[in-house]
Each structure stands twice: as C-alpha cells, then as structure tokens.
C-alpha cells in the first residue's frame, strides 16, 4: 500500500463518527516516541507498519532524535556485552535521576561500497599512536610519539584533504601526551590536566588548555579550583572520564551514577542511574550524544 503525507486515515478507533487524522500529523506524533515504542507500534497493523517504514518518517525520527541525545552505556564481561540507553540530562540538578533501558539488540553501521577495500594514506612522519583520540569538525586529533626521536606530539588528520599535521608538545606542555583527555571545547581542541589525584576524591584543581592559533601552536590556559564540597559529593575512589558536555560541563562516572561538574558555576551534581545495579562488576563504558535510529525497526 502506497502512502503519502497528504493522506488521511482513521487510526484511533473504528467508529463512524470518528474524524480521520492526516498522515503527517500521525507521523509527527509517533516521531516523538522512543525506538522501543516504535517497535511495538509496528505490530498494531499492516497499515501502521507501512506508515512507520516510510522514508519520510525515518528522516523525521532521526531529526527528532538528534535534538534529544542519549547516553549509551555498555557493560562487558567474559565476551558478553550488554547495552543500555538513558536520556541525557540538559540541566542536571541534585534531585535528578536517570533510568537506563536495556537494548535487546545492537548493531554497528559500517559505511563503504559493496566491494570493501582498504586504502593507505601516506604520512610524512613515522609515529606510534596512542588510543582515545577525538574528531572535531572533520579533523581527527590523537596523541603520538615520534618513532625515531620519541618526542611527544598530537597528530592532526584532515579527513577532507587527507593530510597530516602535527602539534609538537615539547614546545608547549610535555605532559600533554601522558595526562588528561582531549576534548571538544566550542569547536577547538582542548585538554584537561589535573593537579593531584586525577578524577578522584583527592583532586584539588585542573587546567583547561585550548589551542588558539593553530599555525603558531599557541595554547590558552585556564585554571579551575574544585569546590570544597568536591570530596563530600563524589565520595572516595577514582572516576572515569565520560566527556565534555555542551560547552561547560565535565561528565564523570562511577558504578551506577554520573557526576556533572559545571566549570562556569563551579557546581557539582551527582545523578544516579537506575536499572544497572546488577552490573557493578562488569567493565563499563559510557558514551555521550548517542542518537537513536530506526535501523532495527526496519528489519521487522
């Protein structure tokens, strides 16, 4: 059955006095539902399934999802990986809590042609790369060591031009490669360096480094003192760095809760995550700005 957005259809009930709803209005309503609810709606009828498989609806749902990103949580042990999704708080407060929903299936989308081939890109400087890079505006940044001299540097790879460039750490801060995560700070490469025990109850302060003039490799430095309530809120032990949220919030995680630290307001908010208490012993990873898609829904 072919449908278009100008059609009207009776979706509420079968009574004769019921007024039909335009298809575009129906899709507007359904696009606000989570993926699991969309999957249930597919089973209502063949008509509903036809509506939900329309390319227009897929585009509409993706657009809606991009403005309401989620946190993606993964828990792994002995070759088994479980995935959960939780809403990403825009304005976390002390009374907030999150509920993680289990994702029964998970897929990875690989882009490429039907005939997959690897193509080598030449680099003018041999180096050993370090994991956990970051991509900002089409440029991949990652830590590395010169293969011959051992000098620390940050390698920059432009995906559009497929050209490499380098930031020589020795000219700025020798600890850049060893300490602190790379972050996206308002579209610029940034780095967090901690004084004291990193991301734990003994941390006292940290520095935010942001590269300004890329050609001159000049960095601006901002130092932040953690508030006196830091230890009382975060408790004892180490945290994992999750990411830099929006333009001013550092996100950390431990076990079944996350910490939001606003660098502008110098405030700390601890938010619990419900539904994952049974996986404390698993290896955990959390990713920000996860956007739900309809790939799994289209299979049914």
Automatic annotation (TrEMBL):
Return the SUPFAM superfamilies for the record: F-box domain (SSF81383)
Domain F-box residues, every copy: 21-61
Record's PANTHER family?
A: BNAA05G37150D PROTEIN-RELATED, F-BOX ASSOCIATED UBIQUITINATION EFFECTOR FAMILY PROTEIN
Q: Spell out the SMART domains in the cross-references.
A: FBOX
Species per Swiss-Prot/TrEMBL record: Brassica napus (Rape)
One Pfam family recorded for the sequence: F-box
Its recorded name reads F-box domain-containing protein
């Amino acid at each position: 059955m072919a449908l278009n957005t100008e059609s009207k259809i009776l979706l509420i009930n079968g009574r004769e006095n019921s007024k039909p709803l335009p298809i575009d209005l129906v899709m507007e309503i359904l696009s606000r539902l989570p993926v699991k609810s969309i999957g249930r709606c597919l089973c209502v009828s063949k008509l509903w399934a036809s509506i939900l498989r329309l390319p227009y609806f897929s585009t509409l749902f993706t657009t809606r999802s991009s403005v309401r990103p989620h946190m993606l949580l993964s828990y792994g042990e002995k070759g088994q990986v479980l995935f959960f999704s939780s809403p990403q708080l825009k304005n976390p407060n002390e009374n907030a809590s999150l509920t993680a929903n289990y994702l029964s299936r998970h897929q990875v989308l690989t882009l490429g042609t039907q005939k997959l081939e690897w193509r080598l890109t030449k680099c003018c400087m041999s180096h050993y790369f370090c994991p956990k890079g970051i991509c900002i505006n089409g440029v991949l940044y990652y830590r590395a060591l010169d293969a011959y001299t051992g000098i620390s540097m940050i390698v920059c790879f432009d995906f559009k031009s497929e050209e490499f460039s380098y930031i020589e750490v020795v000219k700025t801060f020798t600890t850049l490669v060893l300490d602190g995560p790379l972050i996206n700070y308002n579209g610029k490469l940034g780095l967090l360096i901690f004084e004291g025990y990193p991301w734990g109850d003994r941390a006292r302060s940290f520095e935010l480094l942001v590269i300004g003039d890329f050609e001159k490799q000049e960095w601006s430095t901002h130092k932040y003192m953690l508030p006196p309530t830091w230890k009382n809120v975060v408790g004892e032990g180490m945290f994992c760095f999750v990411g830099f949220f929006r333009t001013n919030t550092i996100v950390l995680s431990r076990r079944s809760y996350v910490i939001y630290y606003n660098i502008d307001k110098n405030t700390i908010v601890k938010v619990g995550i419900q539904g994952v208490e049974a996986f404390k012993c698993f290896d955990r990873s959390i990713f920000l700005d996860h956007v739900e898609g309809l790939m799994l829904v289209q299979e049914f």
